[in-house]
Amino acid sequence: MRKVAETGHLQKGFIYIHTHCGDSPELEVRRDQGALGRHPILLTVEDPKVQVGSGGATLNALLVAAEHLSARAGYTVVTSDVLQKAWILILHMGRDFLFDDCSRAFTCLPTEDPDAPVEALTCNLDSLLATLTHQVCKGSPPGVWVCSTDMLLSIPTEAEINWHGFQGAKVIAVPGSVSYAQKHGVYLANAQGVVQDILYQSPEDQIQRCVGLDGKVPLVCGIVFFSAETAEKLLATHVVPPLDACTYLGLDSGAPPIQLSLFFDVLLCMAQGVTEEAFMKGQSPGMGSGDTQKAAATRNARSVLWKALRAVPLTMAYFPGGSYDYMSMSASDHILHLTAHKGMAGSPAFCKVAHSDVAEPQLLEDGCSVTNSLLEGAVSLGPGCAIQHCCLKGPLKVRSGCLLTGLDVDSSEALRSRVLEDVVVQGHATRLRGIRCKVFTLSGRHDDWQCPAEENGTYLNVPWEELFRRTGIRSQDLWSSDTHSSCRCLQNARLFPVLHASEPLALGDILWLLDFPGAGQLQRWRTSWRMSWEELRTCLDQETELASRKALFFTQGQSKIRKVLMEHSNCSLLPLIRSAVIEGYQEAVLKTLDEIASTASDPGVAARALACIADVLACMAKGEGGLRSGPAANEAWAPAFQQLENGSIPEGIKELAKERKKWLSRPVLLIRAARHYEGAEQILIRQAVMSSCQFINVEPVELPAVGHWVLVECPARVDLAGGWSDTPPITYEHGGAVVDLAVLVDGRRPIGAQARRIPEPELRIVSASGGLEGEVVTELVCQHLEDLQDYCQPHAPGALLKAAFICTQVIALRSQRTLREQLEERFGGGFELRTWSRLPHGSGLGTSSILAGAVIAVLYRVSGHSANIESLVHAVLHLEQLLTTGGGWQDQVGGLVPGLKIGRSKAQLPLKVEVEQIAVPEGFVHTLNAHLLLLYTGKTRLARNLLQDVLRNWYARLPTIVQNANALVSNAEECARALQQGNLAVLGNCMSNYRLQKKVMAPGCEPLAVQCMMEALEPHVYGQCLAGAGGGGFLCVLTKQPRMQEVLQRILAETEGLGNFSLHTVEVDAAGFQMQLLEEDLP
């Protein structure tokens, strides 16, 4: 069967033709995974007869592709013109394969691709498609590619074909030894790469003529390209007898089928060194002899091909660094392909344990591989062993040279009782007259399946006679009298029990052949319905086998999810989630994530599990339903959220899952459900961050007199390196480090708060913000607890200040006592709180968090308490969780701790922030002040939108984000060292690196106008980066020369498209946070 796909893959409109003996959805799956490019169209093309050969199959597939393209173009008849702008790939799936029931194409390889967008088993077909995509087909003109899938092929990544002036057909060749070529095909080409002849299994002296300067011969590796013009000529032959018999049209018309080889019929006639006489007399490999009628039809077919294609030039593309291995019927060769040998082990793609869950990996010796399997308990593997698609339970010892495939956990006991060495044990899904059953086969690694028993044939690596003596089996048990002794071989020996009249069969009913028979075993074997491999292969149930492999893949995938989440691994689960949704396993994944979230003792693990559920729901929406970010306060989810807020995580997860079932019917509902799961995740993040409250220490002090002000003024913060690593959950899951400066802007501390006691039992709040764009003043009076209820809505008027009253426990919001009663009983009256910021909204200088610290400090003091800086830093974390803004700790560290410092947090809970002052050389602070400038960009940043995306990417553990988190921390440490050394150039380099790291963390955080500013300033600065999260606000620059404000002002004034900007001086504030108690009223 041939499967055709039309796609935008390879930057072209490609058509794939997949040939196979039965229908298979595997290419459709790869289309859904995105492996075949955009908008592919797949067509399945069945071979007209079993033995039309690779040439006949190619012609038939080409005809179907032309019909399809003709119909798409609006034609009512087949026209070859449609090939002129088509890129076609024909994949020949080949014959049955002894060691994989799903054919050579779908033989799984021991590899994993950590960068793949969709996690999946890597089959030989996937490897070939990747090789064709990235190396072989790249840049080709329109035409037809033909590729066999019965080989393992590797092409160097830098390999490239020069298509300039190409005409005709081109074959692909890789180097091989003369000895290897004697069993395969080889090209004879001249120095210009023009093919002179194609040899197959030729004597050594003939092959020597093909040896190149590298001492190797160009092996036939099963890949051919026909230009569009050549494909038209080949297609034209399908109407000419006897070639019409290669296509379904000819067979439907009653033409007798003929067998045609792609290489020795279609291509050989193009080889310049082949004469017409030699071509007409030659015999294709695999063709039988003695049938004069077929021989005559073959000669006639060759005559047609010679006339149609002889003038077509045939050239060879030779890849010196490539490799080719035919997937033969040798078990030794196959095991070698699947284990860590020279070539495979050196490949970065080789994975000893690929897509598998192995309980005790230390028991796997070097030189073995495990693919798509579950190994529970103590399962040890010797060198040269391969296990695929198995679920086994130890204790179990598999010695060297074994291949185990398709075995379930029930087989473990039988395996445990035998010595396993140099054997192949396989379980096969079969369908026998409508009955599905599992059949087991057993063979030796060194057995030749086609070698006659009387001519050195073996079974289980020993001569047949030895097997007969040891087991009591007789020759007539295996072969009928109709089978001539010279034809009796392992392939047609009825060895394998399939059904028994009275008892179920298991693996033990074949494994006993490894030893002497136990009581009744020989009789049980004899009375079973047995089949040979030759008979069994026609009953293989490929659909069930593929389904079984996928089920096992997602079973181990669920185990992987548990391990990744519970072990706090930085492995991304998003590729596995995408795969589960594509393959229809989303419910199993959701159930696993529900279980993890509800049983995890760590709220960080539960939060990540909820984030993964949100990803599953978003993937189920398939790109529809709207943006991921959005509101998450629908009343339907409120009961679940309340359970989580109360700390009842298992009950909350159960409620979430119950509600989720109502939101799965449409993409828009799925996206809204995903938003609510992210809202639930934020609740658990808040609870994790609340662990920092244990580091808040408050001491009682004397209450200030009524009317006396407590005043706090704070510097702004400039972050030089490490920002984003302080953001929960990154800060407690990865660990963070940020270098900050406390700074005066234009010579003053721009942020402050003041509070005093007042006789009236109420809260008066006055908040002033903004400076450059105009001041905005908010005034509120709170006389009832209801007035404080919107403290957790960040955009509500005075929300931060209301949250501060609650955070400092001045007010108990959940108390039975009224606001008036609380204030009178504890303080004899109320409070007036005034705050201000002379910085614009979204400045990036840490305004809101520093202001929160100032407010907490004045409220503590005015209510008769005091707290040190460390307590204030952690109290701000607490406040921002109450406020639901979810901020990090770098802003308050930067503004509350004086001077230059580096803040750090470890990857653990409870979250604790530790600050180290950075000692700098004498006079360096003065130097730094002369070289630092702040440039207000005139752009307002939207940090909350950025934050949502960053947290989503972090929870998905996208590799780029994880690597960037590492880089942020290491750059912060380097920046601290640069400050200690007083090295401006290194400091500037750290700032520039920081700029790039922010852009990786939050793409889009640097507006175009800001980029223009930075480009204009680039020659004059050591480094520059936007303050804070980015997106706008202030730009911090470290100039190469001191006091460059006027120079930069002039440069920017001459740069077009910058809009409103302004330059501001900046000085390191060595004093920092300042608190004063004032006895008199302030104006």
TrEMBL record:
GO molecular function: ATP binding; fucokinase activity
Pfam families to which the protein is assigned, alphabetical: Fucose_pyrophosphorylase, GHMP_kinases_N
Main enzyme class: transferase
Catalysed transformations (reactions): L-fucose + ATP = beta-L-fucose 1-phosphate + ADP + H(+)
Domain of life the protein comes from: Eukaryota
UniProt keyword ATP-binding present: yes
Domain GDP-fucose pyrophosphorylase span(s) in chain numbering: 80-500
EC numbers, comma separated: 2.7.1.52
GO biological process: GDP-L-fucose salvage
Keyword Kinase: yes
Domain GHMP kinase N-terminal positions: 821-893
Coiled coil (UniProt feature): none
Entry-linked InterPro entries: GDP_fucose_pyrophosphorylase (IPR012887), GHMP_Kinase-Related (IPR052203), GHMP_kinase_C_sf (IPR036554), GHMP_kinase_N_dom (IPR006204), Ribosomal_Su5_D2-typ_SF (IPR020568)
Its biological purpose: Takes part in the salvage pathway for reutilization of fucose from the degradation of oligosaccharides.
Family: Belongs to the GHMP kinase family.
Protein name: L-fucose kinase
The organism of origin for this protein: Eublepharis macularius
Gene: FCSK
